[in-house]
UniProtKB/TrEMBL annotation, chains A, B:
Active site per UniProt: E49
E.C. code: 3.5.4.33
Function: Catalyzes the deamination of adenosine to inosine at the wobble position 34 of tRNA(Arg2).
Protein name: tRNA-specific adenosine deaminase
InterPro entries referenced in this protein's UniProt entry, alphabetically: APOBEC/CMP_deaminase_Zn-bd (IPR016192), CMP_dCMP_dom (IPR002125), Cytidine_deaminase-like (IPR016193), tRNA_aden_deaminase (IPR028883)
Keywords: Hydrolase, Metal-binding, tRNA processing, Zinc
Matching CDD domains: nucleoside_deaminase
Pfam family, one: dCMP_cyt_deam_1
The protein's required cofactors: Zn(2+)
Note describing how the cofactor binds: Binds 1 zinc ion per subunit.
List of residues binding Zn(2+): H47, C77, C80
Domain called CMP/dCMP-type deaminase: residue spans: 1-105
Length: 151, 151
């Protein structure tokens, strides 16, 4: 989680909503890390999780990551939750819960439907305070409170 | 929809689950087209919709596509439904309904939650028979019926 938190801090330094993600393999080796990059890439789907998952799969040249863990500082949104299922990730570890935009424990609860063909082990709330504090500090430093919805 | 169907046929020719997508702007001009490319890219998230949306946003250099229509041959899965909301697409037009893996009218119904911050106009069932026939023909030609779940 500390690697993911470092990625989140990097995002904040670039003016991106601070979310960071890491993909590790079955032996615990880091396959990919990523920061949220929606602004830099002009891509509303350039979330840390999706970038890290795609990078890990590209590194391996495989479309599934069945032995892997995704660690991310914030509860994934529906996009990233669905990507986690599609890549058949073994374990999801996340930091802060996200009642506003989350898709795992909130809203559509993507894994909790028969249409979801793979459900990872889910561990939420790891280093929750630190993960949430990075986000809170970022939004408190922004002038327009309306910017706080989504990434 | 005929452009999207042509993209779906291209996918089938490449051994990809035949789904095609087109993004058009407010004036009806085509911004991007894409075929499902999960196998070729070794990327479980390389769905036609997500590829077309990212290409359209990249072409414009903008993170939102507020005036645009996404036309796709199959009901989007939760990943693509969430991407449609994130890109703030104005209108979604799709062909066949997908009770097995769909995320708009089935399963998590991504747009139907307060955590979804943008809901497009949704028109389903356009050229439904033709869209479904391309998928059915593809799976009937594959040896292993277990391959028919997801892309």
């Amino acid at each position: 989680m500390q690697r993911a938190l470092n990625e989140a801090r990097k995002a904040a330094e670039c003016g991106e909503v601070p979310v960071g993600a890491v993909v590790t393999d079955g032996a615990g080796a880091v396959l990919a890390t990523a920061s949220n990059a929606v602004e830099a890439r002009h891509d509303a789907t350039a979330h840390a999780e999706l970038l890290a998952l795609r990078a890990a799969a590209a590194r391996r040249g495989e479309k599934y990551l069945v032995d892997c863990t995704l660690t991310v500082t914030l509860e994934p949104c529906p996009l990233c939750a669905a990507a986690i299922a599609l890549f058949r990730i073994k374990r999801l570890v996340f930091g802060a819960y996200d009642p506003k935009s989350g898709g795992v424990e909130h809203g559509p609860r993507v894994f909790d439907h028969a249409t979801c063909h793979h459900r990872p082990e889910v561990i939420g709330g790891v280093d929750e305070r630190e993960s949430a504090a990075i986000l809170r500090d970022f939004f408190e430093n922004r002038r327009d409170p309306a910017n706080s919805a989504g990434r």
